[in-house]
From TrEMBL:
Keywords, comma-separated and alphabetical: Transferase
SUPFAM superfamilies in the cross-refs: Acyl-CoA N-acyltransferases (Nat)
Organism placement in taxonomy: Bacteria, Pseudomonadati, Pseudomonadota, Alphaproteobacteria, Hyphomicrobiales
Protein name: N-acetyltransferase
Record-linked Pfam families: Acetyltransf_9
Taxonomic superkingdom: Bacteria
Keyword Transferase attributed: yes
Domain N-acetyltransferase, residue spans: 1-145
Residue intervals passing through the bilayer: none
UniProt GO molecular function: acyltransferase activity, transferring groups other than amino-acyl groups
Length: 161
């Protein structure tokens, strides 16, 4: 299994993974819109025997500091719970830190995302349409430069159905 940056030729396989991992096409459409908008800052695939079995994307957020939004993350259903999503997220976070991003936000299950260091308490001071117990933040390379203000995901998120 290898993790590498997505390539244009991967688009159809990534879409198949997203459509299999989620109940509808929204996440697959979101990834395509983020890509088309130039908002796919970090986009990684997990490849096993030439098959794409997982995908993660990080996009820029409007925030009081250099921040990314994590998501979507998708793993082929027959490969879930095997560490693929974990590996994709960790690699993406490492790349974000190496590129001097200061923080990452995610909207998801705290029980899952806490293992990476995400904390709902770090996101509490930020105004967002997604504010609440499922919006979490992670500081990269030091404390977050701000603890309040407004944060917004890339525009494609606002166009979700």
């Amino acid at each position: 299994m290898i993790i590498r940056p997505e390539q244009p030729a991967d688009a159809a396989a990534i879409r198949r993974v997203l459509e299999a991992a989620f109940p509808g096409p929204d996440e697959a459409n979101l990834v395509e819109e983020l890509r088309a908008d130039g908002d796919a800052v970090i986009a990684l695939v997990s490849v096993d025997a030439a098959d794409i079995v997982g995908h993660v994307m990080f996009s820029p957020m409007a925030a009081p500091f250099r921040a990314l939004g994590l998501g979507p993350v998708a793993v082929a259903p027959d490969r879930q719970r095997s560490g693929i999503g974990d590996s994709l997220i960790r690699q993406g976070l490492a790349e974000a830190k190496a590129a001097d991003w200061q923080g990452v936000f995610v909207l998801g299950d705290p029980a899952y995302y806490r293992r990476f260091g995400f904390d709902p308490a770090l996101a509490q001071g930020f105004a967002s349409p997604y504010a609440g117990p499922h919006l979490m933040a992670l500081a990269l390379g030091g404390p977050l430069p701000a603890t309040n203000g407004r944060v917004d995901y890339a525009p494609a998120f606002g166009r979700l159905g």
